[in-house]
Amino acid sequence: MSETSVVVHADRDVLAQAVAARLIVRLIDAQAERGQAGLVLTGGRVAAAVYRAVRDLPARDAVDWSRVDVWWGDERFLPAGDPDRNETQAREALLDALPLDPSRVHPMPASDGSEGDDPEAAAATYTAALATAARPGTATLPHFDVLLLGVGEDGHVASVFPGHPVTYETRPVSAVRGSPKPPPVRTTLTLPTINTADEVWLLATGTDKARAVGMALAGAGPVQLPAAGACGVSRTLWLLDRAAAADVKPTFRSLR
Ligand SMILES: O=C(O)[C@H](O)[C@@H](O)[C@H](O)[C@H](O)COP(=O)(O)O
Q1: Ligand 1 pocket mutation pick from 151, 179, 201, 238 by most atoms within 8 angstroms of CB
Q2: Which ranges carry the Glucosamine/galactosamine-6-phosphate isomerase domain (predicted)?
Q3: Which ligand 1 atom is nearest residue 76's CA?
Q4: Which of 5, 220, 250, 251 has the CB geometry, 3.0–4.6 Å to 228, for a possible disulfide?
Q5: CATH number, domain 3-252, options 1.10.1740.10, 3.40.109.10, 1.10.940.10, 3.40.50.1360
Q6: What is the pLDDT of residue 255?
Q7: Residue ranges around ligand 1 (CB below 6 Å)
Q8: Cis preceding-peptide flag for 183 (omega within 30 of 0)
Q9: How confident is the model at residue 138 (pLDDT cuts 50, 70, 90)?
Q10: Is the dihedral of CA 8, 13, 17, 19 positive or negative?
Q11: Residue ranges of the domains in the chain?
Q12: The complex's ipTM?
């Protein structure tokens, strides 16, 4: 039975520290249970603050990083190494500092990769990479223990934007053209894929996010507000600061 929880922290710095600690513990537990862990990264400023906090916490050494599979929930379709790629940002903020197994780090293709400047081909390549790592006996996807999502002011998650055709997409990975947040071309896990994760953690800070967060938790639909359609199999965890939680009904709040 899936559980939805909301945890509210004082501000972004405290949130980043607390989410980093929570993430480290969750990865340790996953490895204790399964011998490995699957982590899906997101882009954006809040996630970057969390990544830096993980990097700087000594407890990160309790994770066996060589047995963590790292995936991305979405990517800005730009050349390899572009500073605006989610991959580049995650590598700089965290991944470069960790003893990861490079074969277990799975960035989404870049626009100058072997697929060429073709986001549909890039989405197909990522779909194949996911299928290669699929759980034995299951369909097409690996085990995601934790899937991180930033939340946009408009309620987007990953590169699933409100009202965009991608909100209806049922294939595992989709190309996105005409993104309202630059750059316009992206690749993304779709909502059905996101929703196979054991735990989905939605991160939001600042007053700009309050309306979207409040509406998502009040039961908005996923086409209007994709964040409302992101749910973990075991748990959906909203990790907010006070400003982003301003419109969340008191029944959902657990102040920290
Ligand atoms: O590629 C991206 O831009 C992200 O994956 C996107 O979904 C992001 O997570 C949100 O827009 C929140 O970003 P902020 O934390 O910067 O507000």
Answers
A1: 151
A2: 11-238
A3: 1
A4: 220
A5: 3.40.50.1360
A6: 43
A7: 42-47, 74, 76, 86, 150-152, 156-159, 181
A8: yes
A9: low
A10: positive
A11: 3-252
A12: 0.98
